[in-house]
Design brief:
The structure is a single chain. By secondary structure, the protein is of the alpha/beta class. Among the domains are: 129 residues, 3-Layer(aba) Sandwich (Rossmann fold); 155 residues, NAD(P)-binding Rossmann-like Domain (Rossmann fold). Helix content is 48%, strand content 15%. It is built from 17 helices and twelve strands. It has a seven-stranded mixed sheet, with helices on both faces. A five-stranded mixed sheet has the order 1-2-4-3-5, with helices on both faces. α1 runs antiparallel to α2, α15 packs across α16 and α16 crosses α17. Bound molecules: NADPH dihydro-nicotinamide-adenine-dinucleotide phosphate and (2Z)-2-iminopentanedioic acid (2IT). NADPH dihydro-nicotinamide-adenine-dinucleotide phosphate binds next to α9.
Length: 444
Amino acid sequence: MSLNFESFIAYARAKNPNESEFLQAVAEVTEDLIPYINQKHPDWIDAKILERIIEPERIIIFKVSWLNDQNQVQVNRGFRVQMNSAIGPYKGGLRFSPTVNLSILKFLAFEQVFKNSLTGIPLGGGKGGSDFDPKGKSDMEIMRFCQSFMTELYRHIGAETDVPAGDIGVGEREIGYLFGQYKRIQNNFTGVLTGKGKYWGGSYLRPEATGYGLLYFVQCVFENMDEEVAGKEICISGAGNVAYYATEKAIHLGAKVITLSNSLGTIHDPEGFTLEKLAYLKEIGRELPKYVDRYKTAAFYTDRKPWHFKCDIALPCATQNELNEEDAQLLVSQGCICVAEGANMPSTAEAIKVFHKAKIHFAPGKAANAGGVAVSGLEMSQNWAGQQWSSDKVDGKLKTIMNNIHKTCVKHGKEEDGYINYLKGANIGGFIKVAESMLAQGIV
Ligand code: NDP
Ligand code: 2IT
């Protein structure tokens, strides 16, 4: 007996109708896992390991009512997808965005299982959030929303059960309000959330970790081909946490970042961002058009994505499916040699096919953006030990983890002609430990 990809996807589709993002993630992973299982572990077929790994262990959906500044009642929906706890407590971010739905959170939780396994830290996978839109809300509205959200979520999480963190729309401010409410309800101070502030249990370098880790991974890719990142031109999308610190680290490494973007449009600065320009970007927040008023050599486009500009390296750092087949073709035709995902699943399945066909280096999010959750894992270790490590110590560990993830990808993804299929390497490398652990723990 052997597994068949088409039949498996038909099974997944029948079980999860209308969940296009989740099915996209399932297909992206199982396309590599099915041949691997058929060849190396046919015994895992009867154990229904794939059917089990795509089924969330638990999903919690709840009402979040809160009062806006006009004392009007607002109602949102809260979610936590507890996907897989075979190798550790559920771990993964919370996303606050009106685009949030179950399909998106299930895809994120599923990807998180493999990503967390790749870090080498014992972390299971989960994801959560709300359809709450933080844009335009006052600080007090954000606080009231977070308090109401945690008033339900607290009973489902815990330092040894499920440890949420940030994602789109959730940063240190939101983690603060969520943590304050958890502590007030439970009357204990534990590492139940990561991404905490540095004075109250947070780890140094957690804010920077995803962006910095992304560049450390890109460095490994270039070292592996006897090249270096210095002097390369980079297009980055997004202008949030991941994009910002990816740009900062790229500048540290001597590369030139020429684009950043958000839902308003794209800044193209042919002279490259500098640390001073980045500080100005922080000041203007989402108002990217203001940048070109100050820096006259730059232009702002509402109709062009970062992928429309010639570059050596592309780093999508905004959101899922932001880079499609046409964008991929444009990147390849203009000489891009490396695409590394800071965001989760930013490249469509068709775009990935273009990268693989052109044999350019494609580093999927579950490998390339794992630095964020890795430092979250280090934050948990510091909380358990009642310690706070120096920034240098955390940075050293982050570099080692990204290096190890790169090695795992090479080990499982190197093809006969020497091309490294990082996606295959990450999928198989992340899967083995989780599958073995599930089997060892019986049919649960
Ligand atoms: P932030 O909320 O800090 O920033 C998100 C950025 O992406 C904003 O500039 C936002 O623009 C832009 N963006 C979001 N949606 C869209 C869209 N539909 N079109 C154009 N721009 C968009 O989030 P993060 O930086 O934390 O997250 C970015 C990505 O990285 C996500 O995919 C997340 O899952 C992933 N990630 C995050 C990690 C972390 O530690 N934070 C770890 C690993 C992955 P605007 O403000 O206009 O909406
Ligand atoms: O997608 C991700 O890895 C994150 N948003 C970070 C998760 C975490 O628990 O730090």
